[in-house]
Design brief:
single chain; 82 residues; alpha+beta; 3-stranded mixed beta sheet; 3 strands; 37% helix; disordered C terminus
Length: 82
């Protein structure tokens, strides 16, 4: 979520690993999840996702949660999706 913990917070539906790594997230909350997904996407070249475990099927299908691509979403989809 952009602006996490602020009144301006907004969901991140899709983002590339490099852009996500530039955003700040609290170490005791989303930080470890973001760090793990950024590392995985960069190291494997495969996408990662963050979402609720109870919504796993919907997260994997891309219906909810945040999708993290190893490269720019603009490269993947023609225009950055947010």
């Amino acid at each position: 979520m952009r602006g996490y913990g602020t009144p301006q917070a907004e969901p991140i539906r899709a983002i590339d690993a490099d852009t996500l790594a530039e955003l700040a997230f609290p170490a005791g909350s989303m930080g470890p999840k973001v760090d793990a997904c950024v590392w995985f996407a960069r190291a494997s070249g495969q996408p990662a996702a963050i979402g609720a475990l109870t919504d796993a099927a919907a997260v994997l299908a891309g219906h909810t949660g945040s999708a993290i691509t190893p490269r720019s979403t603009a490269d993947s989809f023609g225009a950055e999706r947010r």
